[in-house]
Design goal:
46% helix, binds magnesium ion, Aminoglycoside 3'-phosphotransferase, Chain: A, domain 2, 12% strand, alpha+beta, 6-stranded antiparallel sheet, binds 2-acetamido-2-deoxy-1-O-phosphono-alpha-D-glucopyranose, 364 residues, single chain
Length: 364
């Protein structure tokens, strides 16, 4: 993006200080993210994001959700004697007071404060880090567990496998770019588990597994850590929704425990690391067992399989659909991701009985 345009965009928001530069940041698959630096040490730096309007079709409602969650979190952090500027995100209003700015092309932009002195990771290098990450998400859910106001469902069916199957069936039937024939084996990976997934989903539908305020994208790079290795702040709140907690736990397992990359071409690298699994679970339950119900605990380990399976489906569906959803770096990128996530799913399935036992014993 043109630098003058980016500088001009920053002037649309109520920033403190004088902006000196705007540079691309991170590797998100959905939005475009930039860091905005200000000249003085005494004024904050900021994160500027162009929200993907094809995916987030109601950005004003999304920003409203985020605002509700961050205000609730800030009050909790203050009550616990913490620092609300560092332990919860601060969303910056535009000049007109709205929490987004729409440019002449109809694109939506939003800004939050950059939290200095944070450390981010792309993988959980040690069990200690995994424990801290689990504790951080448990605490995040706990602080939000008494939030009364419902959130708007801005991504209907996001982690709802029934809705995912509707999308899946439509894409397979249409096969818009003729790729279905080359991925028959991969399609069977999805189909062979459909009944089991639907059986689980019926428990969500009948309320056996409740919905709570959840993050829904808890991979490790959405957590800021401090230099001591503790969680500072949970970021990337675009997907805060009401959904089962095991989505957050499951998505974290998908990311933390993978010994390989999300898009590893060498499938031999990809397994679920048991020590990281155990440490994450221990950290998560240390905060969450106070509010989890028996059925949530019973199905927690399944959350890892569920979200990893859903991710296999989502990457494969996007591949068959012609790569319209995720940003890709090569023609087969979504297929590479599909296969790598499937290797992780197989590894989790192989360890599932022990995972369940471990959850039960740590939840006591
Ligand atoms: C997307 O943009 P990013 O990388 O934070 C996606 C997640 C996926 C993830 C795969 C809104 O998250 O659901 O799990 O990619 N976010 C959305 O790594 O679809
Ligand atoms: Mg992210």
């Amino acid at each position: 993006m043109n630098n003058d345009l980016l500088m001009e965009l920053t002037s649309q928001f109520q920033l403190k200080g004088v902006v000196c530069c705007v540079k691309p940041l991170g590797e998100g698959f959905i939005n475009d993210t930039f860091i905005v630096k200000t000249e003085s040490q005494d004024t904050p730096n900021y994160i500027l994001q162009r929200k993907n309007k094809n995916i987030f079709t109601d950005v004003p409602a999304m920003m409203n959700n985020i605002l509700k969650v961050t205000s609730h979190l800030k009050n909790k952090v203050i009550a616990q004697g913490g620092n609300p500027d560092r332990e919860a995100m601060t969303i910056i209003p535009a000049q007109d007071g709205k929490y987004y700015f729409q440019d002449v092309d109809g694109e939506f932009w939003a800004v939050c404060e950059f939290i200095n002195d944070n450390i981010t990771y792309q993988s959980a290098e040690t069990p200690e880090l995994a424990y801290a990450g689990g504790k951080g998400i448990g605490k995040f859910q706990n602080m939000l567990s008494d939030m009364k106001e419902p959130l708007v469902d801005i991504l209907p069916g996001f982690h709802n496998i029934k809705v995912r199957y509707e999308q899946w069936d439509a894409v397979i039937a249409k096969d818009p770019v003729g790729r279905a024939k080359e991925v028959k084996e991969e399609i069977e990976w999805i189909e062979s588990r459909r009944a089991k997934m639907m059986e689980f989903w019926s428990l969500v539908e009948d309320g056996t597994i409740p919905s709570r305020v959840t993050h829904n994208d808890t991979k490790i790079n959405n957590i800021l850590f401090d230099e001591k290795g503790d969680v500072l702040c949970v970021i990337d709140l675009d997907t805060v929704l009401n959904s089962p907690v095991l989505n957050d736990y499951g998505d974290a397992l998908r990311s933390y425990t993978n010994t390989g990359l999300e898009d590893d071409e060498n499938l031999g690298n990809v397994t679920m690391d048991w020590d990281i699994f155990k440490a994450y679970t221990e950290g998560y339950l240390s905060e969450s067992k106070a509010f989890l119900t028996e059925s949530e605990i019973d199905w927690l380990a399944f959350g890892g399989l569920y979200i990893t399976y859903e991710q296999v489906l989502r990457f494969l569906m996007d591949y068959i659909d012609g790569d319209n959803y995720y940003k890709t770096k090569s023609e087969k990128h979504n297929l590479v991701r599909t296969r790598a996530q499937y290797a992780l799913l197989k590894s989790m399935e192989g360890q599932y009985e022990q995972m369940k036992e471990c959850v039960l014993s740590l939840a006591k």
